[in-house]
Amino acid sequence: xxxxxxxxxxxxxxLTGAGISAESGIDTFRAAGGLWxxxxxxxxxxxxxxxxxxDLVLGFYDMRRAALARAQPNPAHEALARLEREFSKVPGRxxxxxxxxxxxxxERGGSARVLHMHGELKSALCTACETRSPWREAMLxxxxxxxxxxxxxxxxxxxxxxxxxxxxxIYQALEACDLFVSIGTSGAVYPAAGFVQEARxxxxxxxxxxxxxxxxxxxFHETRLGPASVLxxxxxxxxxxxxx
Length: 244
Ligand code: OAD
Known about the structure:
six-stranded parallel sheet
């Protein structure tokens, strides 16, 4: 069984998606009533949509940033932070937390190293000077860029047709990992949906924790179904009991 060989894992890559933040009150994308049912992807998550109607796009991300301010991390975020802390105490162990989420609930849950491959709601990207700046306010009123003062800020969020952040570093970690864990993602969006195959090609064990089987569920060695707030702390307990 999975648990019996857990003690051998030294290099873990964890991928999270919207499902890990669902119990914090953040909308997922593809559920009935989710964000992509309320808004057309082409309108609010593509460079073309932004060019066509910047007010609509800026307003959409202002709304999501405001919702984030009202959300709190849940036990799943906190458990991953605990795993990171314990892992960092043991030489030779490496943990990379990659999230597709643009919220900051991993950081507020205590994780110190989080790689946001789809960008962050609390960051602004200047279309004039390309500087990325920490950002907490609304953008609809066209505030000036803190670096160049041009009113050209957009959300620092990766849209469809754009390149996710830090892919080189992620593939390097996948090639070297011995365990890959996917949490709360539907497996509908590449390149993240392909990480499980990269990890398997590198010889890693693969585990999925999700409310329902993802699109790529059969690619994992093991799938556990249930809410992240329950499954993730349980899994972290297993890892820490067997290895530290
Ligand atoms: P999705 O909305 O596609 O999928 C969320 C997954 O989380 C689903 O498989 C749900 O079953 C699962 N889920 C829901 N509630 C859960 C819970 N409480 N515990 C565990 N799992 C739960 O979201 P993502 O897979 O993150 O990209 O979407 C990937 C990307 O598509 C997003 O980053 C975004 C979106 O378009 C961009 O905007 C570029």
